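Hi C.,

You asked whether I'd gotten around to modeling the 531-residue construct. I have! Everything is below, sequence then structure, no commentary in between.
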Amino acid sequence: MYDLLITGGRIVDGSGGPWFAGDVAIAGQRIVALGRLAPAEARVRIDAAGLVVTPGFVDFHAHSDVTLLVDSRAESAVRQGITTQVVGNCGFSAAPVRSEDVPRYQRDGLVFSFPGYSWDWTSMGEYLARLRQAHPSINVVVLTGHTALRTAVMGQADRAPTPEELAAMQQLLAQALAEGARGFSSGLTYMPSCYAKTEELIALASVLRDSGRAYHTHLRDYSRFLLEAVGEALRIGEEAGVPVYLSHLYAAGREHWGEKTAQAVRLVEEARQRGVEAAFDITLWPRGGGPFQQSIPAWAREGGLEAMIARFRDPILRARIADEVEHGTADWQGWLKPDWDDFLISRVGCPCNVAWLGRTMGELARARGQSPAETALDLLAEDEGQLWTAPTVKREEDIALILKHPLGIPISDGFALARDGPLAQPDLPKSFGTFPKVLRQHVREQGLLSLEEAVRKMTALPAARLGLWDRGLLRPGLAADLVIFDPDTVAERADYLHPNEYPVGIACVVVNGQVTVNQSGHTGAAAGEVL
């Protein structure tokens, strides 16, 4: 007798091959049979007639490092079909961290400043144990972030490491990998990663050599210096001898749309012809969504949050910062020309500032009788550095180019959140609707991707990049992570005005053999694993 039998569905198995009609049988945590199995006995049967059955979606790039500890249900992720999520991206990982740095790191780490959890670990091994104790509803893959390594060894210093400091960072990375981390990430527009030279990153990425693990990078620039930033990332992968994955690749800013995105893709293609294992991913909304801190010049962020805000209070420094935020500098990698009436405020840290949400920086500047750059500095200080904005950074044509490319995969770049409980604050629609958006917009409505190719990009392809050889495909013997959805109705409901909306058309989600989402919602199952 099977534990679970899914019958009558249209199976899209993750390989990219054509769908076929059949049934899926599960025993324990594994798929044990596919085929015409309807007469068999099972403890639980699910009728998938008229629906599509696929592997569980693999979210290759997310930031749920601590939200899974706050609320392990992972509602916004699992309800859109995500069964595995990668955290520790953009250089931000929850370990390693020195015990004396924990309060500041938790507050200033941008993706860690959520209420409702206690930080009681320092090493990667301790963090992974804490994550397992939380019993998340989804599987989790953890990367080690450059920000964590540099902060633990050098604090927020704007300088190159000494040989001893570099060796210490290498040792911390090697230890984290030995304890269960599955790669290394950097976020080169964020502090203190923005202070690192290419040679430092090559030396750290070299620790991954022969491990099968990859270097994942948020590039140093996505606008004026995008091509130079792509070249740097490819150089790091090539000289370190490791796979390199370019996070959310696109050309940011209207003056860079179009050809520059295509040129960036060509650089990756040329690197692959030289033997570099390189690829990229993409977020699906034209609006971005990230910490406004990265719009402050790097020199003004040195020393951490208090030092940055103190500079805002110095009239001479404040005037320089505001001018550089507005106009940039000739050599500032990471600067994006601001369109203040498009800088939508998408997240705040202080509940007292929720009235800012959904308004633009330009609108608030006019209400305050200030210049937009001055208002931006004040809002960032008043929100204790936690302010996030969502300007329109890319266009649909560039998203389509990246997504359709054989190397492109969709990512959420979001958090596992919920509409209730401690994580019910407004956030970004990508946390709730990324994968249904692919199926609605890019498959059903536009025909950019076939259903089979879209599923491959959301399952087998990201699983292979992670070395998760028992996931991403529907095959006997592999892990029983599955999604059942209606191809005619599946869609995201979240947008920037209503970001915390669950999708429609997802009928069932199975994680490690346990039905975790059904027509009634989350079942309470907590079958996820740290992979």
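If it helps when you're writing up: Residues 296-390 form one domain.

Thanks,
B.
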